[in-house]
Each structure stands twice: as structure tokens, then as C-alpha cells.
Amino acid sequence: MKQLLPVTSIVNARNLGGYYIPGGLRIKDCMLIRSAHLADATDQDLKYLADLNVTKVIDLRKEDEKFQRADKTIQGAEYISLPIDASGKEGQDKTEEEKKIFLANKQFDIGQFILVAAFNKKAQRIADSMYYTLLLEPDCQEQYARLLRLIIETEQGAVLFHCTQGKDRTGIASAMLLAALGASRETIVADFDYTNHIYADDVKKYVSKVRELGGGDKEIATVMSFIGANNDNFNKALDMIDERYGSFENYLKGPIRLTDTDILTLRNRYLKLV
Residue 73 pLDDT more than 60? Predict the structure, then answer.
């Protein structure tokens, strides 16, 4: 995939540049960047991002995810914490088992979390409704509105936005930006789906572990939602947006509060003729 960045220490690092937009346009290279966290970034990769003139890093992780996993610093870039909770109201209170994992490790351990979540009924419901939560929960909408406003206000340089794995919260943010820039649904879904190629080995590993523990279809679907990107649920969420708002762009003009001027600003800044 030509959008992949040539970095070795930042997972799922991709550039929205290069996607074609109807009307003979394409997104400019290396201006909008999505990724997983930067906690393990090497000096070489940080320099690469600095050379791309990344002037703003927007971190969508919650505090418990960032504990002892703070982003490494890109020289010259402003860091902004903008936490988004993909679990919704049901996930705000951790189970005792989840609390023990966080306390024991002093940091967010995605592997242990997955094995617990796969067999947890609440986690299964959260996984199934995650994209609806991100798109419809007012608190999430408010944070995404702030994210797009921050990008609109960034007149110089590139913007990098990320969560822990760079797939769900980041994937929805990318979908919103692509929709605002006029991308087709096919392009939006393709960008979202590429996460499954990035994490294919991890999905296979945890599916195997869950099967060994006696997990069935529901448990495996939960693993695939938390490690990969659930395309079926994402497409259902896009269908829901179309049914409720008429189009993704109308949704952006509704709860995300983008104006025609905002959309024109984004398109003038980030698009160019093929």
C-alpha cells in the first residue's frame, strides 16, 4: 500500500496522501498521517516525521492507555491530548479483573486485555457496538469535532493523529477526514480495512489462543474487533449514517459541526489536481 510510511518502530503508520478523489483530484502526500502510539518510536523514525514537517500530534488515547507509554517527542511538533472512549457508557467502569490487569502491569497490556475481553459479555457488547458509539455518542462526537477543528486550524505543516493501535478511533477520524475531502465510500472502507493487513499475524495468534481456551464464534469476533478492524460493523455504521443523515458529509455538518467553509478549507489545503 503506497500510503504506508517507511518507519519500523511505529505501527500502522500511514499517510492519507495519494488517495484519489472524484473530480480528478488526489490528497497531497504526507500532510495527514494516522498511526498507532509513538511510545516506541526510534530517534530515526522521529527524525523522519520531523523532516515531514509534522507540526501537530493529536493523541486520542485515554489516560490509562498512556500510563508509562507516553509518546516520544517529534521535534517542533505540538502535542495535544484528546481522549476518546470507544467503550461508551457501558465500558466506563472496569471489571475487577480488568482493574487487576492494569494495576499488575502499571500500563495498558493489549494482549492480556484481549484474552480477558474475548470471554467477557460486556466487552463483547462493547466490541459489537464500538463504531456506533464512536459515531453517535455525544462525548465522542464532541471530541471528533475538536479534532477536526484542530486540523482546520493547522495552517502550516502536517498533522499526525493516533490512538493505541491506530485502528478504531483513528480509523473513524480518518474516515471523517476522507469524507470531508470528498473520498468515495470505497476509498473510505479500503483505508479502514488496511488495518487488518497490518495486524493479520496478531489476529491469527489471538484467535488461536482463544480457541485453545474454548472460545467460539462470539469470542473470536470480539478478538477480531479489538485486534483488527471489523469491516462488517464499520459498513453497518456507514449505512446507519446514510439512513439517518442522508450522507457522511451531512453527518459531518450535523453533530461534527463542519461548515461549508470548513470543508472548502480542508479541500483547498489537502487536495491537488491529478
Answer: yes
Structural domain total, the chain: 1
pLDDT in tens, 144-182: 999 999 999 999 999 999 999 999 999 999 999 999 999
Q: What is the pTM of this model?
A: 0.91
Mean pLDDT (the chain) is 92
CA 65 to chain CA centroid, nearest Å: 14
Task: CATH number of the domain at 152, please.
Answer: 3.90.190.10
Of the listed ranges 6-20, 33-47, 73-87, 209-223, the least confidently predicted one is 209-223
- The dihedral through the CA atoms of 239, 170, 160, 146 has a sign that is positive
What is the rounded CA–CA span in Å between residue 151 and residue 146?
9
In sequence order, which residues have a C-beta less than 8 Å from that of residue 51 and are 6 or more positions away? none
The verdict on residue 2 lying in a domain is no
